[in-house]
Design a protein that fits this description.
By secondary structure, this protein is α+β, with helices and mostly antiparallel strands. The chain is built from two helices and eight strands. Strand 5 and strand 6 form a beta hairpin.
């Protein structure tokens, strides 16, 4: 009877110790979880806010936190008759025309996070009329 009890205890001990093994497949599956980091703030920076026809304005978009999971964004213009976007290895606003009224024209640039559309920033671009003192003739 003592032998049978000893064998049962030995089997139970082996079973319990193998169940507590930290190197099982189930434990390693949990190490590959990626944490989602939301965009909290987006900032639109223009190299200049006043411009003349043929000027180019460098556009920079900063997203925080820097490790946000989805850093995509959308840029939009209130009007594209005076300013348009071009993209090479950096984002550029090109001033293509002035306001036909001869007054200073304004275009509002808006950046919106694709991760959270309520996270936005806006900046104005003021286009001086051709021939004004702010725009030397070329």
């Amino acid at each position: 009877m003592k032998k049978l009890t000893s064998i049962v205890l030995l089997i139970l001990t082996v079973f319990i110790l193998s169940a507590c093994d930290p190197t099982t497949d189930q434990a390693s599956l949990n190490t590959n979880i990626t944490q989602y980091v939301p965009v909290e703030h987006i900032e639109l920076i223009l190299s200049q806010q006043e411009a003349c026809v043929r000027d180019q304005i460098t556009v920079t978009v900063n997203i925080t936190p820097a490790n946000a999971t989805n850093q995509a964004f959308t840029l939009s213009l209130s009007t594209n008759t005076m300013v348009n976007f071009s993209r090479t290895n950096q984002l550029i606003l090109s001033v293509i025309d002035d306001d036909p009224s001869g007054e200073i024209g304004e275009t509002i640039v808006t950046v919106t996070s694709s991760d959270n559309t309520s996270v936005t920033d806006t900046q104005g671009v003021y286009v001086h009329p051709t021939g004004s003192s702010a725009c030397p003739s070329s």
